[in-house]
Write a structure and sequence with these properties.
Blueprint: E1 2-3, H1 4-8, H2 19-30, E2 35-41, E3 53-56, H3 61-74, E4 79-83, H4 91-110, E5 116-122, H5 133-146, E6 152-156, E7 164-167, E8 170-174, E9 182-185, H6 204-211, E10 222-224, H7 226-229, H8 238-253, E11 260-264, H9 269-284, E12 289-293, H10 297-301, H11 312-315, E13 327-330, H12 335-347, E14 352-356, H13 358-361, H14 366-381, E15 386-390, H15 400-424, E16 430-433, H16 435-445, E17 450-458, E18 461-467, E19 477-480, H17 489-497
Parallel strand pairs: 2-4, 2-5, 3-4, 5-12, 6-11, 6-12, 10-11, 13-15, 13-16, 14-15, 16-19
Antiparallel strand pairs: 1-9, 3-17, 7-8, 8-9, 17-18, 18-19
Helix pairs in contact: 2-9, 3-4, 4-5, 8-9, 12-17, 14-15, 15-16
């Protein structure tokens, strides 16, 4: 067992850095030519760490123009999320989608006066996803369209809010409950055994070598450990310390060329802000960087304060909540989700719980079975909240493509239930639990095209999207990752939104 306190004794203390310091540095850089971060989110849960930013589930040039104009008009921070849902796609499909997004974003920016784009490939804090394929495609597309070559790809999987930290180039999961204060290498968790995106090491340089099949050797990876991130810790003035660290980070990145992988240690929000200042300095010096990151990186990079969790009143602000019940849809199968579901069903006794049998979805009478589920959900919503979950028995296969096919079949069924329910009897709110589930429910079940991320429902995690168009306008849509929160979290979020719990 590894104790976090013991590991951290080898490194300096963190430097206190206000979010405003990063925001001011970014504003100074953007004074001549505005710059927007375009975040390609491989599932919608990347938005859980930010607030008041536009999010797109479609990526035509016109969609980007809406987002860029919203940023300019509202004065919100300069970032837009694009829900690619590429974690649910096979590699070829993921590549095509990433290229489409980048080309259309650049085309939209080119139609406006003086707007520069930087790209973020947002993925999982437990290292699952299409890496290095997605950063490779983004870099190649940017080079093809603009001629700009990428010097480095910065990997920042850490998500301290959810207990994922990187120390000494090793990615860990923090323990909870009786194990609080301990660190487990993420390769020793269930996430490393993912049927599609499994991996064998938590040492980030070795992970890069493994996933790139040796194209990037481990010893070619630049590691920004806490000695670099916190290089200015000894300074008497934190502002001076932040500048010392920024210069140290930029110096360490100086050798990056031709998409050199760069791994960053992160334990706290202050570390994210120190890294952001260093990246800003590196880019000021001329480095061209892409980012492959976990959820909180963008918040740090744009200098956004950590938003407090939304209250029940704030969740419905500007809209009149329906008297119908709310719809809670659970698709994820990771252990924490199943525990959260068990707590919710045990505590929310007035809710109707409906299980979708995955084996029946894959059977010959799937359509008739789905009709039955929809009718049951609609009728139950008239009396209160409804919990819809897929059966907890995972149908396993050793074929990644077949695993994705099964996942898509299940997701399509969940989408059909949500969409047909919305058309028949709109719910008071929708909570979608699981990355792919959240994505498909938002984009297809609720037919959201443009939304605003209002903020988190719990501290640092679980985001509320407010749809600004389409049939779900005015219905809070809660994006809830499968692998975040404690056992009580799903019940806590439902209790905030429900009028019967």
């Amino acid at each position: 067992m590894t104790l976090e306190a013991d590991v951290l004794t080898a490194y300096p203390a963190e430097i206190p850095i206000p979010a405003a310091t990063v925001a001011d540095a970014l504003a100074a850089s953007n004074a001549k030519t505005p710059r927007v971060l375009v975040v390609l989110d491989d599932d919608p849960t990347g938005t859980q760490s930010v607030a008041d930013l536009p999010v797109l589930t479609r990526w035509e040039a016109s969609d980007f123009i809406w987002a860029f104009e919203h940023i300019a008009r509202s004065g919100c921070k300069p970032a837009v999320y694009v829900l690619t849902n590429s974690r649910s796609l096979d590699p070829d499909e993921a590549a095509v989608r990433n290229e489409e997004v980048v080309r259309n974003a650049l085309a939209a920016a080119g139609s406006l006066e003086e707007l520069h784009l930087s790209f973020v490939s947002r993925s999982d804090s437990t290292l699952r996803g299409h890496y290095p394929l997605e950063p490779d495609v983004i870099a190649a597309t940017v080079a093809d369209v603009s001629g700009e070559k990428t010097d480095g790809v910065v990997l920042v999987p850490a998500f301290p809010d959810a207990g994922r930290v990187t120390i000494g180039g090793v990615h860990y999961m923090r323990g909870t409950g009786d194990a609080a204060g301990t660190l487990t290498p993420v390769s020793d968790t269930e996430f490393a055994k993912d049927a599609t995106f499994g991996f064998t090491t938590s040492v980030m340089a070795d992970y890069v070598e493994e996933k790139s099949h040796g194209r990037f050797a481990a010893d070619s990876v630049i590691v920004l450990d806490l000695n670099i991130i916190r290089a200015g810790a000894a300074a008497s003035d934190p502002a001076d310390g932040a500048q010392i660290s920024a210069n140290a980070i930029a110096d360490a990145i100086e050798a990056a060329t031709d998409s050199t992988p760069i791994v960053a240690d992160i334990v706290s929000e202050n570390d994210l802000r120190a890294l952001s200042l260093g990246l800003e300095e590196a880019e000021r010096r001329g480095k061209k960087l892409l980012y492959r990151v976990g959820p909180p990186f963008v918040r740090g990079r744009i200098g956004q304060e950590i938003r407090t969790a939304l209250t029940a009143k704030e969740a419905y602000q500007g809209n009149t909540p329906s008297t119908a019940g709310g719809l809670i849809v659970v698709g994820s199968h990771v252990g924490v989700t199943t525990r959260q579901l068990n707590v919710l069903t045990a505590e929310h006794r007035s809710a109707r719980t409906i299980e979708i049998d995955v084996e029946k979805l894959l059977g010959a009478r799937a359509d008739a079975y789905l009709d039955q589920i929809v009718d049951t959900v609609v009728e139950a919503l008239r009396g209160g909240d409804v919990i819809v979950h897929t059966s907890r028995l995972v149908i396993k296969t050793n074929d990644p493509a077949e695993s994705l096919r099964i996942a898509r079949t299940v997701s399509a069924a969940v989408v059909a239930v949500v969409n047909r329910t919305l058309q028949t009897f709109p719910p008071r709110f929708v909570i979608a639990k699981g990355g792919i589930t959240s994505s498909d429910v938002a984009a297809h079940g609720l037919e959201i095209r443009h939304a605003i991320v209002r903020g988190p429902m719990l501290p640092g995690i679980v985001s509320l999207w407010e749809p600004v168009d389409g049939p779900a306008k005015g219905i809070p849509n809660i994006v809830f990752a499968g692998n975040v929160g404690d056992d009580q979290s799903l019940a806590d979020v439902t209790r905030k939104l429900s009028n019967t719990f």
